[in-house]
What we know:
The chain is an alpha+beta fold. It has a single domain (17-159), classed as Hotdog Thioesterase (Thiol Ester Dehydrase, Chain A, Roll), CATH 3.10.129.10. The chain contains two helices and seven strands; from the N terminus they run βββαββββα. Strands 1-2-3-5-6-7-4 form a seven-stranded antiparallel beta sheet, with helices on one face. A hairpin with a 2-residue loop joins β5 and β6 (125-133).
Amino acid sequence: MNPKKAPHPWPAPDWTPVRPFPFSEARKAFAGLTSQEGLLVLRYFRRPDGVLVAATQFGPLAEGTPGLVHGGAILTALDEALGAAAWVAGIPSVTVRLETAFRVGVPLDAKLLLETRVLSTRGRLALVEGDLLGPDGTIYAQAKGRFMRLDETTQRRLYGRAV
């Protein structure tokens, strides 16, 4: 996971909005709620370089330590964004392993960026990583995960249809 400076403001004018999950049955998670619902907002975009990013903000229901986001909420956002990167890359999948490093406490209501990368695929597994970045380039958290491709039968069983 390479430290990078995050572009700001988000989204940039040349970013294209993306719906990573092709149908609502694949999108039933508690991430992506509106800020009024108070947990987490994720808005996905593809940058001109092809990287999938998510502009994100944690609301008051994500609070752990006073004034800071709970680690479980951060982990959820990273899992959701890494999974989205796999789906956008044509790999409908579920998480089978996720490793996370929390670097700096995340302040509530901060405008942040999740940047993702599909590193490799082998058989049914995809290796994906991502960083949670602040506007000044601060790396708040990083994750690396393995995602298992779902065959069409499993997709139909879980979501009622296949991609």
